[in-house]
Design brief:
Largest sheet: 6 strands, mixed
Number of strands: 15
Radius of gyration: 19 Å
Number of helices: 7
Structural class: alpha+beta
Distance between the termini: 32 Å
Strand order of the largest sheet: 1-8-13-10-15-9
Number of domains: 1
Order of helices and strands: EEEEEEEHEHHHEEEHHHEEEE
Shape: globular
């Protein structure tokens, strides 16, 4: 296993959930398949051809590892920090009134928002108050979405799916970085971060490699000819996973009604609901957030 490098810092505490580490990533074909849960039915999780997954040898951090990762408020920027925290109590009370825990599908979640106009307006007011208190500038709503229970990773590209697709058509992306339009590896740090609320009834997890894209770029540069291989924003994930499969990943717990803030354009990551039995529900905003 590669030794952790100082990089992206984690701002959390024991009350905000557990933090674990593993020994790296593995190609999805080299690991026993996982079973998704959808409405009490189980389906084998399938992946895109080049998908890499976190190894399952999670363990608590050693003291020296935690000291490398823990936030110290030195050089703290939106592009090199991850924050885990709890939503304000008034906002939790409002979300409780939506009874999202009874929803069994994304459509049912959407219906609860559509059928409670006054309550949703109140939620929007409180959400905006909260986000404005931690925002460095303009922000925008990205999505209200759901993920399957017991999903080893949650990200997939539904744009590739056929009309009338079923759960068996899904192909999950694997550990990845997000990519905004006109982004390069040298400008990824300028694209802000995201805040994601866990509105489900069980913990979910942020999976993360604590390296920025510039750190990754320079690690790859020491191994291969950057120009010859045309390392860019689109292919850097594949190259890193092949060259450094034993660089550890982090697994950060996000409890119900907790949020994470992470620079997902500037690091390798994914979400996970591994071990859960209920629908995962998340609300996400994009901006430049700092606590």
């Amino acid at each position: 296993m590669k030794k952790l490098k100082p990089g992206i810092k984690i701002y959390s505490d024991k009350q905000n959930g557990s933090l674990q580490i593993n020994s790296g990533v593995i190609h999805h074909l080299e690991q026993a398949p996982n079973e998704l849960i959808f409405k009490s039915q189980k389906f084998i999780q399938q992946y895109e051809p080049e998908a890499y997954l976190p190894k399952r040898d999670w363990r608590p951090l050693k003291a020296e590892e935690y000291n490398i990762l823990k936030g110290d408020h030195l050089n703290k920027k939106n592009f090199n920090s991850v924050f885990i925290g709890e939503l304000p109590d008034p906002l939790k009370v409002l979300f409780d009134k939506l009874n999202l825990e009874t929803a069994q599908s994304q459509d049912e979640v959407f219906e609860k928002f559509k059928n409670n106009h006054e309550l949703v307006n109140d939620i929007n007011v409180k959400v905006n108050e909260f986000i404005e208190s931690i925002s460095l500038g303009p922000y925008k709503f990205m999505s209200l979405a759901t993920n399957y229970a017991n999903s080893e990773i949650v990200s997939l590209d539904k744009r590739k799916l056929p009309a009338g697709y079923t759960i068996n058509d899904l192909r999950f992306i694997g550990v990845h970085k997000d990519s905004s339009q006109n982004m390069s590896l040298h400008t990824a740090h300028r694209f802000g971060n995201r805040i994601t609320f866990n509105l489900g009834k069980e913990s979910r997890y942020l999976l993360l490699i604590n390296l920025t894209m510039l750190q990754v770029y320079h690690m790859i540069k020491k191994e291969i000819d950057i120009k010859e291989h045309n390392i860019n924003n689109k292919n850097i994930t594949s190259y890193f996973m092949q060259l450094f499969p034993d660089y550890p990943m982090l697994k950060i717990e996000q409890k119900p009604y907790h949020y994470y803030i992470a620079p997902t354009d500037n690091c390798f990551h994914d979400g996970s609901t591994f071990g859960s039995t209920s629908l995962d529900i998340v609300m996400t905003y994009l901006g430049k957030f700092l606590i």
